[in-house]
Amino acid sequence: MSDNGIHPDAGKRQKILESAFAVFSQKGYQQTKVEEVAQHAGIGKGTVYLYFTSKEELLREMLKAMIKKYLSELKQKLAEETDPWAKLKVMYTIHVSLLQENPSLVQLHLHDFAFVNDQFRSWLETEKEDFVNHIAAIIESGIQTGQFRPLNAKLAAALIISSLGVFLPPHSSECFSVDELVDLLFHGMSRRVSAQA
Amino acid sequence: MSDNGIHPDAGKRQKILESAFAVFSQKGYQQTKVEEVAQHAGIGKGTVYLYFTSKEELLREMLKAMIKKYLSELKQKLAEETDPWAKLKVMYTIHVSLLQENPSLVQLHLHDFAFVNDQFRSWLETEKEDFVNHIAAIIESGIQTGQFRPLNAKLAAALIISSLGVFLPPHSSECFSVDELVDLLFHGMSRRVSAQA
Amino acid sequence: MSDNGIHPDAGKRQKILESAFAVFSQKGYQQTKVEEVAQHAGIGKGTVYLYFTSKEELLREMLKAMIKKYLSELKQKLAEETDPWAKLKVMYTIHVSLLQENPSLVQLHLHDFAFVNDQFRSWLETEKEDFVNHIAAIIESGIQTGQFRPLNAKLAAALIISSLGVFLPPHSSECFSVDELVDLLFHGMSRRVSAQA
Amino acid sequence: MSDNGIHPDAGKRQKILESAFAVFSQKGYQQTKVEEVAQHAGIGKGTVYLYFTSKEELLREMLKAMIKKYLSELKQKLAEETDPWAKLKVMYTIHVSLLQENPSLVQLHLHDFAFVNDQFRSWLETEKEDFVNHIAAIIESGIQTGQFRPLNAKLAAALIISSLGVFLPPHSSECFSVDELVDLLFHGMSRRVSAQA
DNA sequence: TATGAATGAGCGTTCATTCAT
DNA sequence: TATGAATGAACGCTCATTCAT
């Protein structure tokens, strides 16, 4: 489904994916020429087509790989925590540090690849849904343990994921701290009047 | 930067902008042909170039106009409320109803505007900053009145604005209610155990 | 079906068709670049696509026009004759003189456009079938009048059409005379022994 | 011109020619990829270039070989007959059965060989001339024996060769019989009125 | 001012050919 | 000798932009 079968040089495929990440991140899909990706990888234009059937597939595979890598790193780190509260805190921390280590990821966020075509759009939405469900499950377990109050876990998950955008430019991660944001999400904005009673 | 000087027919310029909004929203930038915009506006293709120097400028001007209109509508409605709490609630409600009235706005979010130039990008960031500050001011006043607890108003504002994304697809506004989200943001996720003590 | 609807300049369409005839005849389909046809017509490459949707359609329309013109000339001249025998003689004469007036037609014969695609192939075969049937009808009428002996009219028609190839290079029309060929076809090769009795 | 000198494995060269025949016949020149020919021959793509300098040369050599083989088979069979009349009848029969045994030969006719260079074209014309002369000689001898009436032997030969096209699609060999065609050629179309007298 | 016919730069993809192994 | 991974020239088609009217 993704590539043309068995390829001679798995390293080259990887190299092309990395170049695709670099160039698509910087310029978006339509503005990127296949030849640019090839040049970035130090290979000929035709070689790209030995590993990917089309520019579109190249983008899809690159995104797949990035998302997989991103989510697997995230999930692995989350798995090391047991406390739902800690999990979410860790998630923010990891997310922010990933963005800092890899500024191109920020750019990647700023592009919207949904427009490539409808199939692509639905694939992206599925991926996002998956991520939301993963976070929602964490929240559910927090509700079970009583650490979180009963709430719409999916909404909370969607909110948390949306809130990651807070760390994108122009409010880079230098502006706000993870702790502040987590505190805000966990305790809310309102003065807990009744609680004080 | 935006137009070629003074045009005799400001109404025609406006009509082109509206058509650009309609078509770009539905099909994205790259997929839209200038001729389609012209047809939608009921004019000839060449006429577009009497009012805008390029397709790209047309998009930028359209985005500028839409954002200005959106923010001014929002700010005006907010001005009608006095209570900070109510203001924020109202903001969500207006946002969601705007999206519902104008589904194209939703689409607008889903397209690739990567080609924006630096000038436009900085304008965009200024506008966003403005909006954040506007919301932050509301929050500040809420803190003054004691309705909100002391918190980083700018962060809260950024969070609120980010959270608007919750109502975009695939979690359309039908999935979540404004009230749920407001409740979550205002009261937080955690069970307020200690507070109850 | 053939063009994109109403075109501004019918003369230009005709000019393109003529250029297509000139270039396709000389170089065949695959070897011909659309830009060459455009250059021959003294127009830009893109202009070709205002009148024809694709290179393939351009070929089809050109062939259609040529065949139509060729057959209509032929049929018209044939209509002026009443005697089946004379009709066939005239057909040869016209065919040969057309080839002489228009050497590109010779080239056109030497290319085989059937391979363009299956649809094209069947269209060509239909055209040829039409032509065969037209000739066969003439022969049938000759049989009715008793000028021709009872024979498979369709086979005779196919033979006659095939025999036109005799005048193609390397045996150009200068080698053989129409009269000789007609005589041969009409009286056969064998010494008419029994007739001598 | 044809190969790169002496090759160790003449059998492999032959094998490649046969594969070229099989694939070019079926798909035409432009549609055939060199790799397909190589695969059909069970060798690597690069190996083809050890025996032929280019795809085009491969085609020319294949055509040469097929034509030579076809003509030599035909001439050999003809040599077995002594009667001119019988020879021609046999020629048709052989031709048709060759086409039936080897449907690819039919296909070979249907493709565009326009790109042949002048050298090849002249070789082709020489071969054709040769064939015509061969048939013409048969006819001459028939005239000598009085079986054929005095006629332009070369024209008759050209006609006979052209008439072979009658058995190509769309009028496949199933439509017409060899006997019918031979009868037509030998006795002509006209009712032999005067002979009846 | 307004038009839309004309233009040609631009790009994704293919595949004949090369060459390192 | 044989291979097949790598290459890049080539081309059909699109569409933003221009300009004669």
Automatic annotation (TrEMBL), chains A, B, C, D:
Q: One Pfam family of this protein, by short name?
A: TetR_C_24
PANTHER family in the record, alphabetically? ACREF/ENVCD OPERON REPRESSOR-RELATED, ACREF_ENVCD OPERON REPRESSOR-RELATED
Species, as recorded = Caldalkalibacillus thermarum (strain TA2.A1)
What are the entry keywords?
A: DNA-binding, Repressor, Transcription, Transcription regulation
Where does the source fall among the domains of life?
Answer: Bacteria
- What's this protein's name? TetR/AcrR family transcriptional regulator
Is-annotated flag, keyword Transcription regulation?
Answer: yes
> Could you state a single Gene Ontology molecular function term?
DNA binding
Q: Which Gene3D superfamilies match?
A: Homeodomain-like, Tetracycline Repressor, domain 2
Q: Which residues bind DNA?
A: 33-52
Q: Name one GO biological process term.
A: negative regulation of DNA-templated transcription
The HTH tetR-type domain is annotated at 10-70
Q: What is the lineage of its organism?
A: Bacteria, Bacillati, Bacillota, Bacilli, Bacillales
